[in-house]
Amino acid sequence: CKCCSNVPPVMNTDALIHQFQHPTVTALVLFGSHARGDAGPYSDIDLVRFVDRDDADPPGSGSHLIDDRLVVVSNYTPTTVAAWFTEPTAAVQAIAGLRQAKPLLDRTGYFAALQQRAHAFTWTADLQAKADRWCSAQMVGWIEEAHKGLEGLRRNDIGRLLNASFGLSWGLMGVVKVQRGVLVYSDNSVIEQVRARVGGNTRWSQLCAVSFGITAEDGLPPSLRERVVAGLQLYVVTTELISSAIQPAHAPMIARTVERINRECAA
Asked: 29 and 48 in contact (C-beta within 8 Å)?
């Protein structure tokens, strides 16, 4: 189509700085595809404003249409930034992007120091222990979706199957992402990154692909029913994969869910 150029229009960074700078902003930083250099014509511009105190909330955060391009502005406080280095769920989402980010404005060198810290970041035993506890609780949380999947299959209930498919794909993938400490460099690559970490040819990765509907079955995309069945099996395999993370208080509920899935899927 002639209207779809592969080259994004030139970004007016000076105008962005002028519009979104504020006395409480210590750094204005470009994240995402425009920072990585792989933006397309429909890629949004992700601007992060690092503010100097937790109660600072300068105006302008949110989504804007500027020169017919989507600009998304976020404010990050010192407390939020600190969590990137101490909380596993925050670290997996933030560290890789922080390493790739491009500063447009860095008043005091704050961002340069922050980025250097991100490059030096390592996944510690303390982070792993926190990740294990979080993931174990998540596996309990996703039991509801597993039950919806089982009931949806029994009734052939589209609503239940649709509800189940989210937790049995995105939910379980997210558990492994955190438990394995996968530092996500793009939301668009997270599934590939997690599958690669586990192993692309493993049973877990194969079931993950089917649960998302990205693996063809006999040349056709899997049906919703097939995706949910794969997702239920993925719950079982995920339990095995992260068995060392399962907390004693959670183990009986998770084990009972695995038994139910194995019984029903074998029937």
From this structure: yes
Nearest 5°: the CA angle 230, 236, 241 is: 115
- Whether the CB-CB separation of 61 and 25 falls below 8 Å is answered with no
pLDDT in tens, 117-140: 999 999 999 999 999 999 999 999
Model confidence over 33-48: pLDDT tens digits?
999 999 999 999 999 9
- Here the tokens at position 264 are 């029903």
Residues 105 and 154 in one domain: no
115 with 132, same domain? Answer: no
CB atoms within 10 A of CB 44: 15
Its domain, for residue 191, covers 125-266
Question: What is the distance between the terminal CA atoms of the chain, rounded to a whole angstrom?
Answer: 50
Taking Cα atoms as reference points, which of 237, 250, 261, 251 lies closest to residue 148? 261
| Contact (CB, 8 A) for 261 and 146 | yes
Q: For residue 168, is it within any domain?
A: yes
Under DSSP, is residue 134 helix (H, G, I), strand (E, B) or coil?
helix
| Mean pLDDT, residues 135-147 taken together | 98
